[in-house]
Amino acid sequence: MILNFNHENIIPFIGYCDEGNEIIIVHEYAVNGSLDDYFMKEENRRCLTWTQRLKICLGAARGLDYLHSGLGDNNIVIHRDVKHGNILLDGNLEAKIFDFGLSKSNNVNQPHTQVYTYTAGTDFYIDPIYH
């Protein structure tokens, strides 16, 4: 699924390694870490200005809009685990959505586009209606 993503706010996939019982996904390095590095560590909380925070929010929203608006053959992707730990920041503090391990892909033209499955994601981040 991640091979098809081509958006400035989605972390680029580089490749993978599959040896023995280990599978490793390789993606672009986000030099500024994840957003939770800034909000979970007291010493980093004041590092981001309100302008930078707004820029990060808008970047993440553009990435989600890309996933939800249709990819290629009218496919959409539901991330299912959007949280500050899965938003990485590049050298310009641009938001990059990351970690598609729980994601589901669906065709927009299907009459029922809801994802029917067991709930997945991180507690406190799951939409209560979905849960």
Architecture overview:
This protein is an alpha+beta fold. The chain is 19% helix and 21% strand. The strands form 3 sheets. The chain has a two-stranded antiparallel sheet. A two-stranded antiparallel ribbon has the order 3-6. Strands 4-5 form a two-stranded antiparallel sheet. The radius of gyration is 16 Å and the shape is globular. The chain starts with 12 loop residues before the first strand and ends in a 24-residue tail after the last strand.
Sequence-ordered SSE layout with sheet pairings:
Layout: E1 13-19, E2 22-27, H1 35-39, H2 50-69, E3 75-78, E4 87-89, E5 95-97, E6 104-107
Antiparallel strand pairs: 1-2, 3-6, 4-5
Label this structure with key terms.
Transferase(Phosphotransferase), domain 1, two-stranded antiparallel sheet, 131 residues
Q: SSE order in H/E notation?
A: EEHHEEEE
What structural class should be given to the helix and strand makeup?
A: alpha+beta
Radius of gyration: 16 Å
* Topology, number of strands: 6
Largest sheet: 2 strands, antiparallel
Q: Return residue spans where pLDDT drops below 50 for at least 5 consecutive residues.
A: none
User: Which fold name is given in CATH as the topology?
Assistant: Transferase(Phosphotransferase), domain 1
Secondary-structure arrangement, i.e. CATH architecture? Orthogonal Bundle
The CATH superfamily is known as Transferase(Phosphotransferase) domain 1
Q: What's the oligomerization state?
A: single chain
Shape: globular
As laid out across the biggest beta sheet, the strand order is 1-2
- Strand composition percent: 15-25%
Mean pLDDT: 79
Name the CATH class. Mainly Alpha
Number of alpha- plus pi-helical segments? 2
Count of folded domains: 1
